[in-house]
Design goal:
mainly alpha; two-stranded antiparallel ribbon; flat; disordered C terminus
Length: about 325
């Protein structure tokens, strides 16, 4: 181990990523795994957040940022709901660690790729923003509109994580389309329909019976079964667009990548559809709702993978020089 000087310590405190980058060069697979870890944790935090809601533990810690007034952790006077809610809060730190690893790995890769670090910092700020929003959710007593915004911001985090994971496996050259404009437009219709599907799902949750706590929690004042039927319509639109895309890609002899991702998405949608209909006709049992939330995350990931598979990005001959050690931390993507 090299001996650290006072100057090294100051440099490490001023800009830890740059300090590490000078002393560590991860391989491409390490950077890919770091980005994948951040993506996996973005899904885990959604599922555990759903567990908080489905067990009625949303107000297990009735305040924020403390769990109770005067205590950061649950007290013995609180129930197991407090442990569930507090455990989900602690997982936010695991998510931050995964995102931090992705940022440091991207910053340390040689040659330096500014696009990767910006995507990593974008995830960081989304996590911070959603942590604050999660606190607001608690402080306003699980208002369903803030809960819906909390989930949608987590969905945005997943989207950025997918993009970073994809970018670790390709170069920084200008994207070259692998399919024609008509196919690209069809996929954008698919992405739009998927966003509407997820949005309708959050409304179903906000109006449905799982309020997140056993107390009298405000719900969105609409008939959740009617919105669930609209949600089902969007689901069938997404399935139809996916099947049409699969058919078109086979007809035009598409490259293997887009065809494989579309086939995988179709399988995910079928599984998600089975879970969705079973949970509806069995009056939303908690276990199936949790499985449906996980399926929603997986579906969104594969929709984005289909979109990103429509082009390839070669490596650049010249790369962006790494910032100097004394530079400030990389800002979020603008």
């Amino acid at each position: 181990m090299p001996k650290l000087t006072r100057a090294d310590a100051v440099a490490a405190l001023r800009n830890p990523p740059a300090f590490i980058a000078e002393r560590w060069t991860p391989g491409p697979r390490t950077v890919q795994r770091a980005a994948l870890a951040a993506l996996v944790m973005s899904v885990v935090i959604v599922v555990t957040g759903g567990a908080v809601r489905l067990t009625g533990s949303g107000l297990g810690c009735p305040t924020w940022p403390e769990c109770t007034d005067g205590s950061l952790t649950p007290t013995t006077a609180l129930s197991y709901h407090s442990a569930i809610e507090f455990g989900n809060r602690m997982l936010t730190y695991v998510l931050c660690a995964a995102v931090g690893w992705a940022i440091i790995a991207a910053r340390s890769e040689k040659p330096y790729r500014r696009s990767l670090t910006r995507l990593g910092w974008a995830q960081f700020w989304l996590v911070m923003g959603n942590a604050v929003l999660g606190g607001i959710v608690v402080l306003v007593g699980l208002n369903p509109y803030t809960v819906a915004a909390h989930f949608l911001l987590a969905t945005a985090l997943t989207a950025v994580a997918v993009l970073m994971w994809q970018r670790t496996r390709e170069g920084d050259g200008a994207p070259r389309p692998l399919v024609g404009k008509a196919v690209q437009q069809l996929v954008w219709f698919l992405v739009t329909a998927s966003v509407l599907l997820i949005g309708a799902g959050t409304v179903v949750t906000g109006a449905g019976p799982h309020a997140g706590d056993s107390s009298d929690v405000k719900r969105i004042p609409i008939d959740w079964e009617s919105v669930a039927k609209l949600h089902s319509v969007f689901a069938w639109i997404v399935v139809t667009l996916t099947f049409a895309l699969w058919f078109v890609l086979k007809a035009v002899d598409s490259p293997k990548g887009p065809l494989d991702r579309t086939r995988e998405l179709f399988i995910v949608l079928l599984c998600q559809g089975v879970v969705g209909y079973v949970q509806y006709f069995t009056h939303l049992p908690e276990a199936l709702v949790a499985a449906h939330m996980l399926g929603s995350c997986v579906m969104w990931i594969w929709v984005l993978r289909v979109l990103l598979s429509l082009r390839e990005r070669p490596a650049l001959d010249a790369t962006v020089p790494a910032p100097a050690t004394g530079d400030h931390l990389e800002p979020a993507a603008g």
